[in-house]
Amino acid sequence: MSDIDPLIWTLYKSFDLLGVVLNGMIGGTIARQRNFDFVGFAFLALFSALGGGMIRDVLMQKGTAAAIADPTYLLLAIAGAAFALLTHLKGKAWEYFRVHGDSIILGVWSVTGCVKALTFDMPLTSARVRSD
């Protein structure tokens, strides 16, 4: 990944981390709607924010999962969960933001999966499967 333009890398990393925060907020919102206790709330929010990437990295077996190797992921997941815990997110504006933000993040995380798979010289079919 050293041959990627620094501006593109910064933009990519920013969207990736924004996705962690947003999915922490979404998981927290769902936990609040279902009246989960604090442990259930924290689990759902953190799993929503970090679970998919950790599963992807474990399946690839190419080093430590990004969410464990870089503490920024965990801190931002906790920040998103805390925001959802302290703020009652509801209404038309939140739904609009959630749906469109989730769509953008899904695309970014698909690219993340493909880039990681191709970086580790995995076949194109593996890159396609790991991006979903």
From TrEMBL:
Give the GO cellular component terms, alphabetically. plasma membrane
Source domain of life is Bacteria
Provide the alphabetized UniProt keywords.
Cell membrane, Membrane, Transmembrane, Transmembrane helix
Entry membrane topology: Multi-pass membrane protein
Q: Where in the cell is it found?
A: Cell membrane
Residue ranges annotated for the Glycine transporter domain, each copy included: 15-88
- TM helices/strands, residue ranges: 6-26, 38-59, 71-89
Q: Which InterPro entries match?
A: Gly_transporter
The entry sums up its family as follows: Belongs to the UPF0126 family.
What name is this protein filed under? Glycine transporter domain-containing protein
Which source organism does the UniProt entry give? Corynebacterium vitaeruminis DSM 20294
